[in-house]
Amino acid sequence: xxxxxxxxxxxxxxxxxxxxxxxxxxxxxxxxxxxxxxxxxxxxxxxxxxxxxxxxxxxxxxxxxxxxxxxxxxxxxxxxxxxxxxxxxxxxxxxxxxxxxxxxxxxxxxxxxxxxxxxxxxxxxxxxxxxxxxxxxxxxxxxxxxxxxxxxxxxxxxxxxxxxxxxxxxxxxxxxxxxxxxxxxxxxxxxxxxxxxxxxxxxxx
Length: 205
Description:
alpha/beta; Rossmann fold; globular
């Protein structure tokens, strides 16, 4: 059985409609095939247990980053998690092969509507223009970046649409890896980091 690990990062979960709906939808799936880690609940002091996080990642086939889109990126604790957990020599670089062959799936929501992510909208770019950091993070770690699941206009989405979105999220989790589009994705890109770029005794920059 494929194992999915959902890393949930919402700074104010009590007031979230979308993330809480997604949590409720996947709750019946939790068990041997699905683990959920609420980062803000686990680490309110921002002190991340790196070995514990790496151990959970090592067991997963599918890694899900579930968070609202903040300033065209991820919430601060999610970024700190990435900085500390995806360490050189473990997740990438010399001998860093722990995540190679896994899939990474971004599930996110935006406050602005889809039209806001357009050259004529106030965000000036299509949503895909903000994805290269995610895609390259996956590539550097030898992971495959799956097409994101995005819900726009989260603040005003109607209840029926939200429930439909949450049900689709749960269905996708339950059916992984039997997603028809996976066969059409390109092979994982290998990004070798020259040891000269990260010598073991280098001073931090």
